[in-house]
Amino acid sequence: MQLLTLPESPSGPLNHGPIFAYVHARRQVLRLLPLTDTEPFRGLSGRMLFVGYAADGYKLSPIYWPEEHYSFLHSRNIVRHVGLLSTMNDSTYSSIYEIEHGGSTFLEVRNTKYCGVNSRGDLCPLWFLSELQDITFTPATFPYGSTPISPIALHPWAESLMLEDLC
Fold first, then answer.
1. Where are the domains of the chain?
2. Stretch 43-69: mean pLDDT, rounded?
3. Cα separation of 9 and 38, whole Å?
4. Confidence class for position 54, pLDDT limits 50, 70, 90
5. Which string of b and e fits 60-95 if b means at least 16 CB within 10 Å?
6. What local confidence, expressed as pLDDT, does residue 14 receive?
7. Where are the alpha helices (DSSP H) in the chain?
């Protein structure tokens, strides 16, 4: 049995925080372990959309969603919308989602005097990143989504392997 090790980038070990992605086969959001630091979606066939941040364990980390399954974001109980985050200025908001029950409690217990309108037209709490100094924040590397990267070249022995069966 061979252990999987993550490759090192030219500047050393992976230096970004967690990235989460929706896995349609499991109907849940899971942490993505990218093959490379600069191309976290390498090998995927479709476009990944940035939908907001996961609130989990005193961390706010980006969530990406496959474009072809975007309708599942609000129609299923996969994630729970917690509120909004302002990272740059008063008019730039991103949604915050809870991906595991209780994972956003650290944020929801914080009082905020502000609210904003989410994508469904509902008012919800709004937090400013500058006021959340004790929380680890990982900015979205691809805030406008990510286009498909060239597929990973497989060794001849692996071409016959049905990758769909692995998920």
1. 19-141
2. 89
3. 8
4. very high
5. bbbbbbbeebeeebeeeebbebbbbbbbeeeeebbb
6. 38
7. 72-75, 105-108
Q: What are phi and psi of 127, to 5 degrees?
A: -110, 145
Residues 94/150/41/161 CA torsion (nearest 10 deg)? 140
Two structure tokens written together for 124:
């919800």
* Tokens matching residue 165: 């069966």
At residue 149 the predicted structure's pLDDT band, cuts being 50, 70 and 90, is: low
Is residue 146 within 8 A of residue 64, CB to CB? The reply is yes
Pairing label, strands 93-98, 48-55: parallel
Q: How far is CA 34 from CA 63, 97, 109, 143, 163, in A?
A: 13, 21, 32, 17, 17
Question: Structure tokens of 123?
Answer: 């008012």
* CA dihedral (107, 112, 116, 117) positive or negative: positive
Tokens of 60: 């706010």
Q: Is the pLDDT of residue 5 over 90?
A: no
Average pLDDT, integer, range 109-132: 90
Tokens of 158: 């692996």
Asked if 128 and 86 touch (Cβ cutoff 8 Å), the reply is yes
Helix (H, G, I), strand (E, B) or coil at 72: helix
d(CA 22, CA 54): 11
Q: Which amino acid is at 129?
A: L
